[in-house]
Amino acid sequence: MEPHVAVENRYQSLDAWHEVDSYFTEVLIDEDEALVAARLSGSSTTMPNAEVAANQAAFLQLLVKMSGAKRVLEFGTLAGYSTIWFARAVGSGGFVCTLELEPENADVARRNFVRAGVLERIELIVGPAAASVADLVSSKVEPFDVVFIDADKPRNPSYLEAALALTGSGALIILDNVVRNGAVVDADSDDPRVIGTRTAAQMIAEHPELEATALQTVGVKGWDGLIVARRI
Ligand code: SAM
């Protein structure tokens, strides 16, 4: 085999993505015991291993800090791993509202919030996110600065609508898992998660008050990506 082919194959393999993620996570990411425990506790939820990777969580935290956000809304709590990163990003005067369907996941998350020392700045609402967010809209809560959409992907279009109802100018709206091993490019897909993502992407493209981009990611979570949109 020619040397350049070997090099190419090595860097296209899942093992290499893991190795690179592990390297940068070890060098750059400050995950304390509470975050490690929260990440590992994902195995006792209904969706093991579905939390964001540590380096992606740190990226989300940077977005919150760079935008000066103080109020974050999250669709999909799981064990609260990303929620803790958000809660630390907004600081002691900030607030994170996170929406989770499964009571057993919410129980795991609550224990993780206590361990991380951020329980008092988090509101965890248990139930279908569509209903929870409708209540937030009807009770006219203060607008959120950042919305992270990471729950059931078929409902991404309605979660995006809700995010628009709950944000103002300058807010960030982030959608996770938009690449799905490349499945997103299949316009004829009958996968409701792909349809939900493509519909939301089109809504973002057509919305006069949104500017956006999408980034692909490879690493410990395989091949995926996120859309980051900003409200003008
Ligand atoms: N954001 C979490 C993190 O990175 O640590 C991961 C969230 S996980 C990908 C998706 C979560 O959404 C699961 O906990 C699942 O139970 C929750 N979920 C699924 N359908 C939902 C719904 N209709 N309403 C609220 N939460 C839902």
UniProtKB/TrEMBL annotation:
GO terms (BP aspect): methylation
Keyword Flavoprotein: no
Keywords: Methyltransferase, S-adenosyl-L-methionine, Transferase
Keyword S-adenosyl-L-methionine: yes
MF annotations from Gene Ontology: O-methyltransferase activity; S-adenosylmethionine-dependent methyltransferase activity
The organism's place on the tree of life at top rank: Bacteria
SUPFAM superfamilies according to UniProt: S-adenosyl-L-methionine-dependent methyltransferases (SSF53335)
Stated name of the protein: O-methyltransferase
Organism: Candidatus Agrococcus pullicola
UniProt lineage: Bacteria, Bacillati, Actinomycetota, Actinomycetes, Micrococcales
